[in-house]
């Protein structure tokens, strides 16, 4: 089912409300046109959560192939601020895990800003770890020699 303009606007409003300040202060910068194109790309899929007809949370994801197999890439998980810390984010991640296992994906992958400390803690508590594709990944026994970046790529194995 295609998203209608009203749904797209509601998704964008939640995203912008939660993320504008983080993007503005990041190396990515605030580029609404680019983010809209990414978020609503033809291969994007959504899980939407409504309360009394109002969108309060969503997860945007795609089925992708990476170097180590098929993955669900979580492009955005957003919960309206008044509903945060209510278990919705956890339920959405668990939903992605269920989808991933049903479609035999090897992992869930996502990108998180280091400045978003609550999201970093949330994903760590959900079992995510720094992915080998992340600029901050350092194999055991090696010394990090890369440039400092303001984000990490995290993943959670589904096997």
Automatic annotation (TrEMBL):
What GO molecular function annotations does the UniProt record carry, in alphabetical order? histone H2A acetyltransferase activity; histone H4 acetyltransferase activity; protein N-terminal-serine acetyltransferase activity
Compartments, record wording: Cytoplasm; Nucleus
Q: Which GO terms describe its cellular component?
A: cytoplasm; nucleus
Main localisation, per the record?
cytoplasm
The record's catalysed reaction(s) read: N-terminal L-seryl-[histone H2A] + acetyl-CoA = N-terminal N(alpha)-acetyl-L-seryl-[histone H2A] + CoA + H(+); N-terminal L-seryl-[histone H4] + acetyl-CoA = N-terminal N(alpha)-acetyl-L-seryl-[histone H4] + CoA + H(+)
- Pfam families given for it? Acetyltransf_1 (PF00583)
Chain ranges of the N-acetyltransferase domain: 9-150
The protein's Enzyme Commission number: 2.3.1.257
The record ties this protein, via CDD domains, to: NAT_SF (cd04301)
Tell me the superkingdom of the source. Eukaryota
Q: Which residues form the signal peptide?
A: none
Query: Keywords assigned by UniProt?
Result: Acyltransferase, Cytoplasm, Nucleus, Transferase
Q: Which Gene3D superfamilies match?
A: 3.40.630.30
UniProt similarity note: Belongs to the acetyltransferase family. NAA40 subfamily.
| UniProt name for this protein | N-alpha-acetyltransferase 40
